[in-house]
Write a structure and sequence with these properties.
The protein is α+β, with helices and mostly antiparallel strands. It has a single domain, classed as Roll (Thiol Ester Dehydrase, Chain A). 22% of the residues lie in helices and 38% in strands. The chain is elongated and about 45 Å long. This is Acyl-CoA thioester hydrolase. GO terms for molecular function: fatty acyl-CoA hydrolase activity.
């Protein structure tokens, strides 16, 4: 099972039609990514303190079912590593009853903040920083 965190849809996050504003889906995904890293032992701030910063390179969202004020959702977070300088974070936003509301796939890299260049082998960098990937990666 991938990491998951529960978020309540707040009234001020709704658009004129009473649906969750499309930009907020990305915010929910960011909340889950940050909380997943903290749960696995390393926060974004911990990484930045070592001179490494996570950078979003691409993000795609597919909307499946509307969300309305007062609903609660579970936002998952699963990291997928391959070769190269980036990794993919796949996320699902699910209503409490399991209905899929949105799928988000993001490409993320880890930047050396001094050199301003992406680091090779982000999995190894994260593991060296103390991130326990056992509950986050496929």
């Amino acid at each position: 099972m991938p990491f998951s965190t529960r978020i309540a849809v707040r009234s001020y996050e709704l658009d004129a039609l009473g649906h969750l504003n499309q930009a907020v889906y990305h915010s929910y995904a960011e909340v889950a990514r940050v909380e997943a890293f903290i749960a696995a032992g390393v926060s974004w701030d911990d990484l930045v303190a070592t001179g490494v910063g996570p950078v979003m390179l691409a993000s795609q969202i597919n909307f499946r079912r509307e969300l309305r004020g007062g609903e609660k959702v579970d936002v998952t977070c699963e990291l997928k590593f391959g070769d190269g300088k980036t990794f993919v974070v796949d996320q699902r936003i699910l209503k409490v009853d399991g209905t899929l509301s949105a799928e988000i796939s993001s490409v993320i890299g880890l930047m050396d903040l001094s050199a301003r260049k992406l680091l090779e082998d982000p999995r190894a960098v994260l593991e060296k920083a103390g991130l326990d990937l056992s509950g986050l990666s496929a």
